[in-house]
């Protein structure tokens, strides 16, 4: 792991060492669009799905329940979050179908981590806005998306059609957690291939997809 990645890892651990215990309870009220992304994953039977920035494992667990024939993998740079995710996955009874590893989203080696080089689905759920090298992470995720596979993203939008006071308050709040919405997400998706980006809830959030 590079010095920059190590610094990011230490920062994330410092933020979430305590927050991880209440993360899912609080975030369900404003991380909108996550369940829609899970519904749209639709991996093939016996397919493999990778989440980049898996956090507490919440999305992987929900996806494993919805797609019982698929296998799931997750990476995160925060060991504190991975500890929480492993405990939740064990509690949910999915340790045999969900595998986790600590890695930098911008430069991970899928084969050395999981013994496979590509996945049928790769997704980012409110993680790109926390990754300093987010464009590199997006490109790396696409590079391990198998032929005919899909990469999906859901994250904060720019709140363009919401009240100005709400946008200012939300941006201030996100900054406290080192979260920065990516205004150029759609353009970055388009550089990868034939993709789509859709604004949700007055551009509170954006969901994007590109097919390899």
TrEMBL record:
Q: Where is the Methyltransferase domain?
A: 49-164
Q: Which GO terms describe its biological process?
A: methylation
One Pfam annotation, family name? Methyltransf_31
Q: What start and end residues bound the annotated signal peptide?
A: none
What Gene Ontology molecular function terms does this protein carry?
A: methyltransferase activity
InterPro entries listed in its UniProt record: Methyltranfer_dom (IPR025714), SAM-dependent_MTases_sf (IPR029063)
Give the UniProt keywords, A-Z: Methyltransferase, Transferase
Q: Which domain of life is it from?
A: Bacteria
Transferase as UniProt keyword: yes
Answer yes or no on keyword Methyltransferase: yes
Note the SUPFAM superfamilies from the entry: S-adenosyl-L-methionine-dependent methyltransferases (SSF53335)
Q: Tell me which PANTHER family the record gives.
A: BTA1P (PTHR47473), METHYLTRANSFERASE DOMAIN-CONTAINING PROTEIN (PTHR47473:SF1)
Q: What is this protein called?
A: Methyltransferase domain-containing protein
